[in-house]
Design a protein that fits this description.
CATH architecture: 3-Layer(aba) Sandwich
Helix content: 55-70%
Number of helices: 8
Strand order of the largest sheet: 2-3-1-4-5
Number of strands: 5
Length: about 220
């Protein structure tokens, strides 16, 4: 059995990546592929517990290095429990965020730098990198406005995942610039979509990109 194909979705909160992941999973399954989806943080019982700490706005005074370490603890678990087994079975694995998010948010946004993040990736994740990363970078103001509306709806249902959305604008500028830096450095892996187009147009672009990359 041939090894599967690993695709990650990246971008600011509210960029539309989670929606596009769901649409791609549906299209791939309709085309006969076996697809496993997961997310970070989360995707496992341990990961969901870590997510509840990392994203809850009531979590205060979390050191940037502790935040980064928790992200990688979640990642180590989902790699062992979900991602690697699915790839070994030949699945297409779609993951909402991976190490690029940690480099952008903790390395860029928190100012920890790329090398600390990448060194921890090597220690925790080994050589596992996505085969393809779809980086959605619409206008940052548009993304964050969507994220705030989404979180307001979640709060109304009793779910608080608003911690990062309380950051100042300068934090998101640093995240955005780090994502662009990653895309330039990893041009063979990362495909950037900087567009405020409607969901269906972005979906068609992603379908075209993925069709060109996945093994026939």
């Amino acid at each position: 059995m041939s090894r599967g194909f690993f695709i990650t979705f990246e971008g600011l909160d509210g960029s539309g990546k989670s929606t596009q992941l769901r649409l791609l999973a549906r299209a791939l399954r309709a085309d006969g592929h076996t697809v496993t989806t997961t997310r970070q943080p989360g995707g496992t019982e341990l990961g969901d517990a870590i997510r509840a700490v990392l994203l809850n706005s009531k979590t205060q005074n979390l050191a940037p290095t502790a935040e980064m370490a928790l992200m990688f603890a979640d990642r180590a678990q989902v790699i062992q429990q979900v991602i690697e087994p699915a790839l070994a079975e030949g699945h297409i694995v779609l993951c909402d965020r991976f190490t690029d998010s940690t480099e952008a948010y903790q390395g860029g946004g928190r100012g920890l730098g790329s090398e600390r993040v990448l060194a921890l990736h090597r220690a925790v994740c080994g050589d596992l990198w996505p085969d393809l990363t779809l980086l959605l970078l619409p206008n940052p103001e548009t993304s964050l406005a969507r994220a705030h509306r989404r979180n307001d709806r979640q709060l109304a249902r009793g779910t608080d995942e608003n911690r990062f959305e309380t950051e100042e604008w300068a934090f998101y500028e640093r995240v955005f610039l780090k994502y662009r830096e990653i895309a330039a450095r990893e041009a063979a892996r990362v495909v950037t979509i900087e567009d405020d187009a409607p969901v269906d147009r972005i979906e068609q672009r992603i379908l075209t990109i993925v069709a060109e990359r996945i093994p026939k």
